[in-house]
Amino acid sequence: MRNSDIEEVYKRYGYITKNIDGILVCEYKQGRYFGVDIIKNGYPERIDKIQNDYRKSNFATYIKEYASIEEIEEELFKSFFQLSAFRTNLNRKYDVFVEKQTIGLPSTAKYLYINSDYTYSNYNSEGIMTSNTEVENQSVVKQVVDLLNTTDIPVFVIIEAAAGYGKTCTAYEIIKQMEENNTEILPFYIELSKNREARIFKHILQNEIDEQFQNVVKSDVVLHQIKQGKIPVIIDGFDELLSKDLSANTSQLRDIESMLSTIVNLLDGKAKIVITSRKTAIFSGEEFYEWIKNTNKKYDVARFSISEPKIENWLESDRLEVLNNCSFPISNVANPVLLSYIRNIEIDELHNLVQNSKNIVDKYFEFLLNREQIRQELFLDENMQLRIFKKLVRIMSEFDIKADSKSFIKDIIKDYNRKIFDDYIKNYPKIPKPTHDELAETLSNHALLDRKQHDNVGFINEFILGILIGRNLIEKKYQEHYPTDFTKIITQEFAFLAISAFKVQPQERKDALWQILHDNQFPYDSKFRFYRDFYLMNNFIDIYEGILIEDLSFENMYFRIDGQFKNSIISNCKFDQCKFDICAFDNSGFINCKFFNCEWINDPLYKDSNMYITGCDSNNFFENKLYEYEEQTESQVNVEELILRKFIKSQTKVNNMKRLSSIRESLKEQNINMREFENTISLLKRNSYIVINGDNCFIQREGITYFNHTYSYEQ
């Protein structure tokens, strides 16, 4: 080893290096600690003298003999980062997180990570998809950890899931398993705040380094060890840095390029960066894959898209048997909050629950509110507690906030419930009686509320918030307090929380909420109306124009002319025992979907419609529909070549990913026969020349090779 290489490592950690009589000496002077490492090199008498001289100056002295630079890196890393202490802190964070997951559940509840199906896609540094796999009944955590532990190249992992379906749980489980399986690394967990802005992401990273490593080491040392793979980074809630509308378009990529650039700048050596995010248009757009290819870094991108957990993932067979034997509407509990409750209540209580007339949501609230009466000696019945928190939700809706400072939440509770507070204090059965402020403090610590980022207080989860928004609507509380503009008080985001939560309500409540959202002039877009009808009616009776529907499952649904899709795409969805009227689709269709036991109704000629079915799979549902009326004339153009040329511009320029809908529209404008287009896409997919993932279409190396052998670059 050269002394210059040794000095470089030591200097990184803040040492001053000296050459004394041919001996390399590394001094460390920070605060009250003075220490020196003397590098052994075969001159013992000189080393002894140097050591004695430093001891006389009150230095802690160490004689070091190393076999390699890597050994020096390893020792200094362990010494400065104090792995044991940091690991203890990580375990404490995990335990706090786990404890919070059982809030609102029976005292015997145990936290359990729930596995879900997921899709795994891998892309190389050229933006080419190298694998695309749908995985069932396996742990996404294990695959992510295995990937991080086994690869020696930089990897950028993106984990996507819908809101409330396990992103943060997955992040914590990854940290836990990494910490347990590899004692030589130190996971670095960053939980992003909703109040931070994209333009200062570099500052966020710096602040997190300063806070978590508490100036024990300089930030450039932390960044160096990230690049060495010793500190894998897990960034939870990447979407919190984005605007609320994550699905409108991919132009937001320009707004987050600085954030992504900060991440990618770390992807050297053996760096491992993991981010979690809600599903967004950003990571599925052409710009993102072009951006990967143009960053001048060699790293892989692994993208995991987690599906909604199945009820079978949550409940053991004995509980499923109880529900099925009573013909209980299982779809009414398909929500993580309710499933956690059912999974943890006593089996006898579950029997009683499914046999009485009270619905599961009311029973869950009853459990929470009754327990709160005991926990906090709160002498308010269920209805009065709910009344207070429905008022809080109404005011939060008006301010368009999900959380705020505890003092602000207390003030709202106190100011809008003075009559309730006066009656409560008057009838309070103990002495001394509480003051208004003390009662507001008690209610601000209620089980329905929880601490959020920056010590703000908000509702414990979006399911509870959504239920209370919906209850306010169907009980006409918004209408009562905002008679002329109640439709403007509730943002589309808050209304979406309501319809999402009401999926698991009894049908009469769904109907009541649907009626209000349908009959009044709410300023919501076509996609909201689609989800309103899907979640609350399981039926489509509106016009849905210009929307993209992805990753949903439809069962026993009728797509008829009453509900018409115009200029819309249904992508990567599953249909089971559904019925379709071709006339319900106007310049709209299905891309990369799966159909099981479906049928056509009012069977008009497919060739006379402008509905399309591209790259889909089925059990012979649409094959006859596709081919029966196909004209047997030979095309004057090579559709296959036209499609491949959308990806391959020249010998040096390849666009690895294109929107399938964009290709289709482009060829349609050239008057290409759309039936031939659909057949050609299916053939290219079957030959593995392209891979379809939702509306995203990726050319494979095999496709590029095929084009090179078959067609000329000259057009």
Descriptive overview:
This protein has about 725 residues and is an alpha/beta fold. Among the domains are: about 5-65, no CATH class; about 85-100 and about 115-310, 3-Layer(aba) Sandwich (Rossmann fold), CATH 3.40.50; about 540-625, E3 ubiquitin-protein ligase SopA (Pectate Lyase C-like), CATH 2.160.20.80; about 640-710, Winged helix-like DNA-binding domain superfamily/Winged helix DNA-binding domain (Arc Repressor Mutant, subunit A). Helix content is about 45%, strand content about 15%. The chain contains 30 helices and 31 strands. The strands form 8 sheets. It has a 7-stranded mixed β-sheet, with helices on both faces. The chain is flat. About 35% of the residues are buried. Mean pLDDT is about 85; it is low at about 195-200, about 245-250 and about 625-635.
Supply the helix-strand structural class. alpha/beta
Annotation, overall tally of beta strands: 31
Low-confidence stretches: 194-198, 244-250, 627-633
The biggest sheet, with number of strands, parallel, antiparallel or mixed sense and barrel status, is: 7 strands, mixed
Please tell me the overall pLDDT. 87
Summarize the structure.
The protein is an alpha/beta fold and 715 residues long.
Topology (elements, then pairings):
Elements: H1 3-12, E1 16-20, E2 23-30, E3 33-39, H2 44-56, E4 60-64, H3 69-81, H4 83-101, E5 118-123, E6 129-135, H5 140-150, E7 155-160, H6 167-181, E8 188-191, H7 201-213, H8 219-227, E9 233-236, H9 252-264, E10 272-277, H10 286-293, E11 300-306, H11 311-314, H12 317-325, H13 336-344, H14 347-355, H15 360-375, H16 382-399, E12 403-405, H17 406-415, H18 418-426, H19 436-444, E13 449-451, E14 456-459, H20 462-474, H21 477-481, H22 486-489, H23 492-501, H24 507-519, H25 526-537, E15 543-545, E16 548-550, E17 553-555, E18 558-559, E19 564-566, E20 569-571, E21 574-576, E22 579-580, E23 585-586, E24 589-591, E25 594-596, E26 599-600, E27 612-614, E28 617-618, H26 623-627, H27 639-645, E29 657-659, H28 660-669, H29 674-686, E30 690-693, E31 696-699, H30 701-710
